């Protein structure tokens, strides 16, 4: 089975093994130039080379996967004047390009919004964007629905 036939999953960090987490850390050190070699990177994160080679092509940081891709986000928002505008301002400030917007009719003071974003221009990490969106007083919930090419 080649990579095109394999299934991929998005999982929370707390369910990953320590070796998987350390592999992601080592890859990050290499990518940012903080380690000169694989040996140097695995030494810095206290990981065996064999574990690194076992997981290096199978685990990826979410920010790596979402760069230059499309991400779909689902929001539960309070129904207040200007909420969508403020939400979109945060998205625009992050460097993302809005591809689609779907908003439900507000019921009982709440509305659901789904945004599809092109993250190619993202200026920070996707996790920073999600944190900034969650800080908005009218945002009750943000979920990542998925990513795509």
Output the keywords.
149 residues, alpha+beta, Alpha-Beta Plaits, four-stranded antiparallel sheet, 6 helices, 4 strands, 37% helix, elongated
Structural write-up:
The chain has 6 helices and 4 strands. With 149 residues, the protein is α+β, with helices and mostly antiparallel strands. The chain has 2 domains: 13-60, no CATH class; 66-148, ACT domain (Alpha-Beta Plaits), CATH 3.30.70. A 4-stranded antiparallel sheet has the order 2-3-1-4, covered by helices on one side. A hairpin with a 6-residue loop joins strand 2 (97-103) and strand 3 (110-118). The mean pLDDT is 86.
SSE order:
HHHHEHEEHE
- Number of structural units classed as domains: 2
Uncertain runs with pLDDT below 50, 5 residues or more?
none
Strand content: 15-25%
Oligomer: single chain
What's the tally of helices? 6
Numbering strands along the chain, what is their spatial order in the largest sheet? 2-3-1-4
Q: What is the general shape?
A: elongated
Gyration radius, to the nearest Å? 18 Å
CATH architecture of the largest domain: 2-Layer Sandwich
Secondary-structure class: alpha+beta
CATH superfamily of the largest domain: ACT domain
| Main CATH class of the largest domain | Alpha Beta
Number of strands: 4
Mean pLDDT: 86
CATH topology descriptor of the largest domain: Alpha-Beta Plaits
Summarize the amount of helix as a percent range. Answer: 25-40%
């Amino acid at each position: 089975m080649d990579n095109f036939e394999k299934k991929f999953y998005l999982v929370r960090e707390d369910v990953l093994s320590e070796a998987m987490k350390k592999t992601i850390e080592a890859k990050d050190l290499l990518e940012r130039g903080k380690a000169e070699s694989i040996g140097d990177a695995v030494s810095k994160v206290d990981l065996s080379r064999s574990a690194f080679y076992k997981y290096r092509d199978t685990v990826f940081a979410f920010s790596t996967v979402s760069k230059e891709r499309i991400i779909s986000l689902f929001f539960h928002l309070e129904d207040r004047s200007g909420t969508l505008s403020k939400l979109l301002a945060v998205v625009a400030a992050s460097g993302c390009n809005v591809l689609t917007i779907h908003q439900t009719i507000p019921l009982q003071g709440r509305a659901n919004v789904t945004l599809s974003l092109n993250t190619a221009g993202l200026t920070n990490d996707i996790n920073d964007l999600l944190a900034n969106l969650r800080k908005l007083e009218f945002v009750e919930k943000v979920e990542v629905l998925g990513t795509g090419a």
